Amino acid sequence: METNLKIGMKNVVESQSTSDTTALTMKSGSLNVYATPAMMCLMEQAAAELVEKFLPDDLTSVGISININHNKPTPVGLPVRAEAVIVNIDGRKITFDVKAFDTLEEIGIGKHERFIVNKEKFQLKADAKRN
Fold first, then answer.
1. Per-domain boundaries in the chain
2. 82-123, pLDDT tens digit by residue?
3. pLDDT of residue 1 exceeding 70
4. How far apart are CA 114 and CA 61, in angstroms?
5. Which residues pair with 114 in a beta bridge?
6. N or C: which end of the chain has fewer CB within 10 A?
7. For the chain, what is the total number of helices (H) and then of strands (E)?
8. Ramachandran region of residue 8, left (φ > 0), alpha (ψ -120 to 50) or beta?
9. How does DSSP assign 59-108, residue by residue?
């Protein structure tokens, strides 16, 4: 399978630390700070959007692994951003370095892997679990 994805390609997405994205609200902790699951989701969004730009309509990518460290807290109200950089392409598997930042500093770092799949086949396989 040939795509125009290349090592070194980067995507950045932005969001906001809000009351909906706190550890308390997301039930991942007891504080009103930006939640690790929210940060992880933003990192994965950056990677997914990057891949999606280069795939034909019948293909998509799915996350298969993520390993992150959430190193610094972010209070409600600050903007946050995540970036994903392609560091390896092995057939249909793409590996990213991911990082997250608030307006003051890097708040998280990690690795994320995605796998390119056929949309219809993947959905049918998932739906078959209900039968």
1. 10-130
2. 999 999 999 999 999 999 999 999 999 999 999 999 999 999
3. no
4. 6
5. 63, 94
6. C
7. 3, 5
8. left
9. EEEEEEEEEEEE-S--BTT-EEEEEEEEEEEETTEEEEEEEEEESSSEEE
**Minimal CA–CA distance to 102: which of 42, 54, 30?**
42
Residues tagged active-site: 36, 44, 70
Torsion of CA 110, 80, 104, 88, to 10 degrees: 30
Its CATH architecture, for the domain 10-130, is Roll (3.10)
Q: Please give the Cα distance from 34 to 15 (Å, whole number).
A: 11
Amino acid identity at 124: L
What residues contact residue 85 under an 8 Å CB cut-off, 6+ apart? Answer: 8, 9, 10, 96, 97, 98
